[in-house]
Amino acid sequence: MDALPFKLSLVKAVFKDVTPMHVSRSAASAAAAVTRTVLAEIIAGASRVAAEEARKKLVPTDLVAAIDRNVELEVGGTWYHYSPTFRHLTGELRDADGVVVASPKRSRSRKPSAVVGAHRFEAGVRHLLRSQGVMAGPAMVRDLDGIASVFLTDLARDAARVVRDRGIQRFGSVALAISGEPTPGPSLKGSPQTDSARSGDRRTIGGDDVLAATTIQLFGELRDRALSDAREAARHTLVG
């Protein structure tokens, strides 16, 4: 298995930003692996966009196009509100003449820790870019740093919630209806429903908690790949 581009010390520091719980080594490894998988897929998607224009150097528009083509890659949404790349996607305030009105400046202290600490992910991001044989301009690297930081922070927050709630709790249900056929009736099971029970103490985040958090953050094929990579990373940690 390839070495994880994001150091476990960095992963644990991110967890510490959102929870006082102890983070096991297997949990940190799993979280690092999930983040690597997500970023690798985003870079691969952006690379395909750039390749269509015979470029190997990625630019922010490649990132936006990759996300537009594959909604599974739309993660780390908080970063979008702080990145010039995504500003036009999250809405701009314009005056009567159509001129963009600058939003009030936020002080550094009010920015989320995931945004302020995004630069910590640059080494890992550059490692992933090199591994795929592509380059990226400073703005693209900054966006990848930010998405990685916010995604991992969200993952850590959900893992802590899994520990507190002793499993994943889902509220309500969704049923698929086929045209011309009656709509299925509501589930008779109570709500909220516990989809996965958790064992163990409530002071430590383990590898399984990160796996559960991954099912909250991701979906589709990307989720399946991330879970597979996370399990492998956790196994190597236990063996090593």
From TrEMBL:
Report the superkingdom from the record.
Answer: Bacteria
Q: Which species is this UniProt entry from?
A: Yinghuangia soli
Please provide, alphabetically and separated by semicolons, the GO molecular function terms listed in this UniProt record. Answer: protein heterodimerization activity
Q: Which stretches does the entry tag as region Disordered?
A: 179-206
- Family annotation (InterPro entries): Histone-fold
Q: What is the name of the protein in this document?
A: Uncharacterized protein
